[in-house]
Amino acid sequence: xxxxxxxxxxxxxxxxxxxxxxxxxxxxxxxxxxxxxxxxxxxxxxxxxxxxxxxxxx
Length: 58
Fold this sequence. Notes:
The protein is mainly β. A three-stranded antiparallel sheet has the order 1-2-3, with no helix packed on it. Helices cover about 0% and strands about 30% of the residues. It has one domain.
């Protein structure tokens, strides 16, 4: 079961590092995952039931 966590960790498509969730906002219920090297950002908006992906975060 050591490989099990690979199924649920999302990775940056450019550098393959695991995305961090340090920018999430519990009040708005959005989940923001960011690459540690700022190559990639992925946001989940539950009200819209959609993901927003962007390259090169600020």
